[in-house]
Give the backbone structure.
Amino acid sequence: MIRLTRLLVAAALAAFVGVPAPATAQPSNSKEIIILTTTTTQDSGILRILTDAFAKKSGLAVKPIVAGSGDILKQGARGEGDVLLTHSPAAEKEWMAGGNGTSRRLVMYNDFVIIGPEADPAKIKGLKAADALRRIGEAKVPFVSRGDQSGTHVRELAMWKRAAIDPKGQSWYRETGQGQGLTMDVAAQFQGYAFTDRGTYLVHAKRIGLPILVEGDPALYNIYHVMPVNPAKFPKVNASAGQAFGDWVVAPEGQAVIAEFGKAEYGRSLFVPAASMREEELLVN
């Protein structure tokens, strides 16, 4: 496993560009549910906890398909899954407007943070996110981005926009095209900065060795929604299974699973259950 991780990191360092494997559309199976979700749910570990609990409750075989939010939404718009669990609010609203889903419900949130070398050459510790990115750009110190149109990448680009900096093409800005775990590995190799969700960071923090330097900014909330795929548009989806997962994950049982995740190991939940909240309470314009 260690050797494999090193090989993957080496490949990412050499290429800085990755292409996610295309998903293959599956026929409907009443005993199986296909959940389209993001790499952050997998890398943080909550995906396995949720799918195991739901499989036990429902008796369904759960098949997750994992990629960045941008790719997951495209797959959902082709009817390649039964339900989506994503964290890219603006893109999700567009997806729903296209008639691809039956509902969009708030599930949970955590937050994004900026990590970097202990020496902090850009002196960003304790700043607001946009101010921190502005300093990184001005200092021209290494910053490693996922560059994969995931929800994390989209939010990172929005924060660069707030900072009035376009990092694309800059010599100090590197894109991996990979998931969050590998992107943080590359940042550690370069002793650079990176933008990550807190949950995934905490799971990999000891290996990566880069501390959190920017946190607590309300602009960094990371919000997840569940969206069953619309059977009126995609008749082959397992609509009842998709709806069942959506109902379960926002119900008290699913929310309790979320609330407990990470407490034993980290002393706090890695995600906050949010089904009873309104999205407007969490979004900062």
User: Anything to note?
Assistant: Residues 110-220 form a domain with the D-Maltodextrin-Binding Protein; domain 2 fold (CATH 3.40.190.10). The first helix runs from residue 2 to 15.
